[in-house]
Amino acid sequence: MNLRGSAPVADVIASLTRDVADFPTPGIQFKDLTPLFADSEAMSAVIDALADVAGGTDLVVGIESRGAVVAAALASRLGTGLLSIRKSGKLPPPVLSEDYQMEYGTATMEIPADSLDLAGRNVMLIDDVLATGGTLGAATRLLERVGANITGAAVVVELEALRGREAIAPLQVHSLSRA
């Protein structure tokens, strides 16, 4: 996909991603996608590129918080439903929980335990950044526990040096940009 003349979507993502050193903890290079999301033409190109890999999806699953922003736009474009995987304490009980390790700590994600029937549904996981794979791995485990058919995952940016793709294999991951 091209945008702004002949620039591929990966180049547009890179040009609108702000690197923030030592956030949220020292030693972490945070990828701030706020400028990308605020640019309507660039955001539309990102959603178009994601729609190209999400065919056959019954439900788009976004990972809080920035993955859910992208997933909501994608679900609208595809005409599907949306499920947001939330951080611990954000959903009313009962919930299913999964703990995971990030590059700078641990966290817990949750989905509703009894308000949705996800068994056999074709779902596509969406996140903003693939780093160590902890978040996508935990989301995958949660969805597998409820019987969802995970058709793949897609991310806006993949941090290749952190080898997250290897940590979540054999999950098929589509990256729009690599850093």
UniProtKB/TrEMBL annotation:
InterPro entries named in the record: Ade_phspho_trans, PRTase-like, PRTase_dom, UPRTase/APRTase
Lineage: Bacteria, Bacillati, Actinomycetota, Actinomycetes, Mycobacteriales
Short name of one Pfam family: Pribosyltran
CDD domains according to UniProt: PRTases_typeI
Quaternary state and interactors: Homodimer.
Keyword Metal-binding part of the UniProt annotation: no
Any one GO CC term of the record: cytoplasm
Primary localization: cytoplasm
Encoding gene (name): apt
GO molecular function, one term: AMP binding
GO biological process: adenine salvage; AMP salvage; purine ribonucleoside salvage
Catalytic reactions on record: AMP + diphosphate = 5-phospho-alpha-D-ribose 1-diphosphate + adenine
Domain of life where this protein originates: Bacteria
Protein name listed in UniProt: Adenine phosphoribosyltransferase
Protein family per UniProt: Belongs to the purine/pyrimidine phosphoribosyltransferase family.
Compartments where located: Cytoplasm
Annotated pathway: Purine metabolism; AMP biosynthesis via salvage pathway; AMP from adenine: step 1/1
Protein's job: Catalyzes a salvage reaction resulting in the formation of AMP, that is energically less costly than de novo synthesis.
Keyword terms of this UniProt record: Cytoplasm, Glycosyltransferase, Purine salvage, Transferase
Enzyme Commission number(s) of this protein: 2.4.2.7
Annotated ranges, domain Phosphoribosyltransferase: 53-159
